[in-house]
Amino acid sequence: MRFAVLFFLTLAPMGQAGASEHFVPEHRVSGIGVARDDISSELIEARTRLMIQSQTFIIMREPQAVAGARRITANAKLQALFRSASERSGMPAQVVEAVAYLESWGDAKAESPAGPKGIMQISEATARTMGLKVVHGTRYNITREKVQVPSKRKKPKYRTVSHKTPYQVITRDDRMVPDRAIPAAAKYLAGMEGKFGGRDWAIFAYHCGQGCVAEMQELTRRARGIPQDQATVARMFFSCSPVWNLELYQAVEQQMQRDYSPTYWFRIERAEQLLALYRRDPAAFVSLAEQYKSQFAGPNGRPSRAPHRLSVWLKQDDLVFHSRDDIHADMGNRLVRAFDRPDYFGYSLRIAADDPSILEDFSKASPAAVGTLTYIAFETRRLYEELGGNRQKFQPLEITSLVEPEDYAQQLGKPEALSHCSGQVFDIDYAGLPPGELECLRFVLDDLGWDGYLGFVEDGMDSLHIGCSPASRDFFTSVFQEAAAITE
Q: From CA 106, how far away is CA 23, in angstroms rounded?
C-alpha cells in the first residue's frame, strides 16, 4: 500500500531558507499549488501515475470490491460478452469490463436511486441514444369504496364504487439484459472516442455526459500552457488552479462537487489494473482489499467501510498515547513540539488548555505531522499570495489539536478524536480564514491528497482533520528537520 513517491519528491535548492521572510523548505512536492503554473509533460505523467494509484482507496474500501472482481472475471458468459463487444466496437475488453466493475460490480440487476440501471448503469436517456429499448406501459391501481347514495328510505343505502388510478411501469428494459447492454455501452464508448478524439475523454463522457465533456474539452483547449496536441483529461485536471486557468479550474471544481466525474478516467485505469491483479493472483487482490478496511469500530461496534484514507492509514497499534503521562514521558522520542512562530511558519497553535503544563504536552506531534502542517502552510501561503489583488493579508492557519491522550479524546466524543492518540494527525480550524485563503488551503489539500501524500476529512463545524500517508512520513519528517535546523 506504499505509493511510488520517489520521483515526485524533489530537492529544489532555494538558497538559504533562513534568509527568507517566511519558511521556504528545500524539499518540495513537484507541481503542487503555485507550481502547477509550469507543469511539464514528464510531471503530468508522474502525477497521473500517482493519481491512478490513489484511486485504490476509492475502489478497494467498497464491500463489493472482491465479489465484484470475482463476478467480472470468473463469469464465462460475461467474459464472452466483453470479448464480443470489443471485437464489434474496437473498444478494448478490459476498458468495458472496468466500467462494468466500477458501475455495478458486475451485477446485472443493479439499480441506482438516481436512475441508471443494469450492469453498465445506463440512464434511460442515454439508453435511447445507444439504441436500447426502454418501453413504458400503463397499469391501473384499482381501489373500491362504499359510498352513500340517495334513497327515499330512512335506512341509508350504499353502493360500491371502483376507482382506477393509472401508473407507469417499464415493460421492457434492455439495460437490465447484459447481452444487450454490454455491446451497446462498448459501441457508445467507441463513438465517444471518435467524437472527442481520445479514449480518456470518452470514459469521462460515460460518467459526465457529452455536453459536459464538450464544454470541459473546449475550456481545456483554450487554457494557457496546454499544447493543443496534449489536451487530455490529465492535462485538464492538473493544469489549473485558483491562479492559473481560473475558468477551467472553476469548471473542474463544479464537476467535482457534482459527482467527481473529472477523476473517473483515473479510476477506470486503476480498475483495469486491479482486475488484472485479480486474474494473476486472487489471494494478493484479497490481501490488498484487507489493507483498505478500517480497523476502527463503526456505529454497530464492528469495523465498517473506511470513511476516509486516515481510517486506513492509522492502525490500532498507532494509538500509543493512552494518558497524558504517556505523552509527558515520551521525552522527544516519538513526539516533538510544534513550532510556535506564526508569521514565519504560517500556522499558529490554538490548543485549548487551562493548565500551562497541559498546553506544553498537547502542543506536540510526530515529526511527520509537524512537517506536514508546516508544508501545508507554506504551499497555502504562496498560492494565496500569488492571487494578489486587494486581498487580506495571509492569516496563519489555526492548529487546534495535535496529540491527545486516549482518555481525553474519549471525553470529547468526536468521531476523529481517538486518532489523535497516535500523534500523526492534527486539526485546522478554518472559521476565521478569508474566503480566498480557505480556497487555497482546500486546493493544496486536494492537490496533495489526490497523489496520496495526505488525507483529510471535515471534523465538526469549520474544522479539518489531517494526516500524511505512511509512505510520505519520511518526506514530511525531512521538512520538519529543515525547519528545526532554522530554529536552533
A: 51
In angstroms, the CA 268 to CA 217 distance is 19
Catalogue the long-range contacts made by 430-434 (C-beta closer than 8 Å, 24 or more residues apart): 430/397, 430/398, 430/462, 430/463, 430/464, 431/461, 431/462, 432/395, 432/398, 433/395, 433/397, 434/391, 434/392, 434/395
* Residue 171: count of CB within 10 angstroms of its CB: 12
| Contacts of 82 by beta carbon, 8 Å cutoff, 6+ apart | 93, 96, 97, 100, 182
Three-state SS sequence of 158-178: EEEEEEEEEEEEEEEEHHHCH
3-state DSSP assignment of residue 138: strand
- The helix (run of H) or strand (run of E) holding residue 65 is helix 65-74
Q: Binning pLDDT at 50, 70 and 90, where does residue 14 land?
A: very low
Contact 465, 416 (CB under 8 A): yes
Residues 49-98 have pLDDT tens digits of: 999 999 999 999 999 999 999 999 999 999 999 999 999 999 999 999 99
Give dist(CA 30, CA 27) in Å, integer.
9
Count other C-beta atoms under 10 Å from residue 291's C-beta.
13
pLDDT digits (tens, 9 = 90+) for 136-174: 888 889 888 888 888 777 778 888 888 888 888 788 899
Closest residue by Cα to residue 328 from 359, 370, 372: 359
Instruction: Give residue limits of the domains in the chain.
Output: 294-487
